[in-house]
Amino acid sequence: MRRRPTKPALFLTVRTDSTRLPGKVLLKIGNQTVIEFMIQHLKRARVSELFVLCTTDNPEDEILVKLAEKNGIRWFRGSSNDVLARLEAAARKFGVDFVVNVEGDDIFCDPILADRTFEHFVQTGADFIRWTGLPVGASPLGIRAEALTKVCSLKDTTNTDTGWGRFFTETGLFRVETLEETDPLLHHPELRMTIDYPEDYAFAKEVCDRLRGTDFMLRDVIQIVQENPSIAEINKHRQAEYLKKFDEKKASVRLKSRVSNRGGHE
């Protein structure tokens, strides 16, 4: 059994600038913004004892800092385009060993999955942990802080805004673990639960109108959608477009020329 790390943390990576749905994290869900809804929901994770909102140093993201303070969590500001550098700098500032990262548009990301991600790291010592089989936007990523430092020292680009996980999964330098959700109640990869388009926001509002605050689990969200099939139809058609845009914008996985695929130098 691996020794428990000294200091894990939950990072909520978010910025206000978005092209497909401007200001999406500041849109209202009930009487609070999307980002406040997420903060209160994710506070239920045990790993959120150290909970950090990771945003950019752009002036327009000052409002996110204020919302973090208002909701009682820590914050960090860093690079706008280089998300890997921002995460690494935040991990270094707070002295953490392992990061459970949640994207700021994944409104229904389950706190239980955040804890299970950390527990898997304790058991395996993996560098990078991802999920499969769950709805789009329902799961976090797990990253060892040492792996963040390593990838930032080796990458040969400062544009890691989209698709930065590929630096861990496609370089052969890191131990990657993929957790598959086999519970039939949760295994619904066909459902889209992230917020990128107006239809995604409409989907989220329909679901949240049927939830009781932020004290819910992913299975509650899925049950609502299954009992109201028309909700899933609201944004279903957007997934193909999202994947196409993602493919166009994803970061180029470039490493410094002297780095071999085993992490050494040629």
What is the β-strand count?
A: 9
Classified by CATH, the class is Alpha Beta
Helical/strand content category: alpha/beta
The biggest beta sheet reads: 7 strands, mixed
Helix content: 25-40%
What ranges have pLDDT less than 50 throughout 5 or more consecutive residues?
260-266
Number of helices: 10
- Could you give the order of the helices and strands? EEEHEHEHEHEEHHEHHHH
Notable characteristics:
266 residues, alpha/beta, Spore Coat Polysaccharide Biosynthesis Protein SpsA, Chain A, seven-stranded mixed sheet, two-stranded antiparallel ribbon, 10 helices, disordered C terminus
Tell me what the structure shows.
The protein has 266 residues and is α/β, with parallel strands linked by helices. The chain has a single domain, classed as Spore Coat Polysaccharide Biosynthesis Protein SpsA, Chain A (Alpha-Beta Complex). Helix content is 37%, strand content 15%. The protein has ten helices and nine strands. A seven-stranded mixed beta sheet has the order 5-4-1-6-8-7-9, with helices on both faces. Strands 2-3 form a two-stranded antiparallel sheet. Helix 3 packs across helix 5 (145-154) and helix 7 packs antiparallel against helix 9. The longest helix is centred in the middle third of the chain and has 14 residues, at 111-124. The chain is globular. The model is unreliable at 260-266 (pLDDT under 50).
Concise overview:
This protein has 266 residues and is α/β, with parallel strands linked by helices. Helix content is 37%, strand content 15%. Strand 7 and strand 8 (141-144) form a beta hairpin.
